[in-house]
What we know:
Elements: E1 4-11, H1 18-29, E2 33-40, H2 49-56, E3 58-60, H3 65-79, H4 81-97, H5 102-122, E4 126-130, H6 134-144, E5 149-154, H7 157-162, H8 168-174, E6 177-180, H9 183-190, E7 201-203, H10 210-213, E8 225-229, H11 238-250, E9 256-260, H12 266-275, E10 282-286, H13 290-298, E11 302-305, H14 314-321, E12 326-329, E13 344-347, H15 352-364, H16 367-384, H17 387-400
Parallel strand pairs: 1-2, 1-4, 2-3, 4-5, 5-6, 6-7, 8-9, 8-11, 9-10, 11-12, 12-13
Amino acid sequence: MSLRIAYVVNQYPKVSHSFIRREILALERQGADILRISLQGWDDVLVDKEDREERERTRYVLQDGYAALLLAALRMAFTAPVRFFGALALAIRMARRGARPLPYHLAYLAEACRIMPWLKSFGATHVHAHFATNSAEVAMLANALGGPSYSFTVHGSDEFDTLPFIGIRDKVLRAAIVVSVSSFGRSQLYRWIDHSLWQRVKVVRCGLERAFYDVEAVPIRQDRRLVCVGRMCNEKGQLLLVEAMYRLAQKGIVCELVLAGDGEMRDEVEELIRERHLEDRISITGWLTSDQVREQILAARGLVLPSFFENLPVVIMEAMALRRPVLATYVGGIPELVRPRETGWLFASGSLKALTEALEDFLATPDDELRRMGEAGYARVVQDHSIDTEAAKLVELFGKS
């Protein structure tokens, strides 16, 4: 029997979630049928053509308003009262143990009721959610309502900060599989679940399409440009990077930094750039398409990520696949991919001194050495982060669920 998997995501497609799109398309290449379900995001501005195409393939739970949710919940209560009130009891328990009040969990239950007819008409054999938050709870409640088995992928720092408060034990206990994108992420789950459930957690890494990395090498540019790709937020450390650029300027070291991305801290970052008179050294691009991110990486000598907390950022894989060295912090799953002086530099998170020294060392490194690091990074990504290889692991896991 062919796999018919329903993917449940809080917001899909999304500019910063291209890794989910890659995974879905890779699963379809493996022969799986995928139903895309998103709770919200049907009217978001999308810069990537592939994201716009994915939106046309996606069903949106909240698009028809709260009346549709209420009607779905009432229909389920009358047609399957035992299952409905069992799921209701589960939602109440999640509220008692979680940080969010009961109305949120009742809304998740209504959303689960809303997707049940979609799962049935699609013939879903399994439901997979991305992120351990509300999307995983919707998948769990749909299972309690009589839906198929479910699993979910745990990704990053936002989830790790809240694992004790989002009912992670219940979600793992009821799930057929739990996926982590790194060994570090798996260890964070181990902290909060019983030892008897550890074998349920599997590492399946984010990956890149062959077309991304199976191309001729582009020589490292001569201009002294670095790129930092990511959402502008506290955990990414862009303010510290601006301060490091200021220290380099005070020492008379010439280089350029491109901040590729956007986010809630953009105004603060721009203000600090003005205060330090670095407008001629630092530029901000705003949100970019996948192709534009690729162009920015290729136009730089290396990628720098001064993150305070991460799991394993996809952009590191992208830079290494394009044969560019990476400068990043000793946090989360990053050391699983970046090896000091082999594929790049690792430095202490939150240390302005360590970041500045890493930048100086990078800028003083000859082209031949940077090319050697780039080739080593390329080989590592091809071996461990092929999306088709990782999707094959998911197919096997979903088939056993």
